[in-house]
Specification:
Rossmann fold; 4 strands; 9% strand
């Protein structure tokens, strides 16, 4: 299963070209299991200004499984990931990214992204990063 981060969905819906967006398109065409999480859903929808586009994107995202954070376990797990990185001299900028990483780890999902926080989290926590299929 591949959890797709907000950064990739934004490229996908805006039509912005990136290797990650092309990988998402490839995964969708292949019928691979693609998922979102609750906080990613919120991030995507909050960035949409127009009602019609909001409804279209919301409907499209409803078709994907939503991996949820479990309170309080996932939130404590996110803090643990942050502290693990800090002990190694690395500061993760986004608490939300720590939460997304925790959800991925808890569901054994690889993450498709283009965000430097996730690269650092993968290096120090065991977060799996999805393979890029389209360069």
């Amino acid at each position: 299963m591949t959890l797709v981060d907000t950064t990739v969905w934004v490229d996908f819906f805006r039509g912005t070209d990136s290797p990650e967006k092309r990988t998402l398109e490839y995964l969708l065409q292949k019928g691979a299991m693609v998922a979102i999480t609750d906080i990613i859903l919120t991030e995507i929808l909050r960035g949409i200004a127009h009602d019609r586009e909001y409804q279209l994107v919301k409907r499209r995202l409803d078709s994907f499984p939503c991996l949820t954070a479990k309170a309080p376990r996932s939130f404590v797990h996110a803090a643990d990931l942050y502290h693990r990185c800090r002990r190694k001299g690395v500061t993760i900028q986004s608490t939300v990214d720590c939460l997304i990483a925790a959800v991925c780890l808890e569901h054994e999902a690889a993450l498709l992204h283009h965000d430097s926080d996730f690269t650092l989290l993968a290096k120090h926590t065991g977060l799996k990063i999805a393979k890029i299929y389209a360069k």
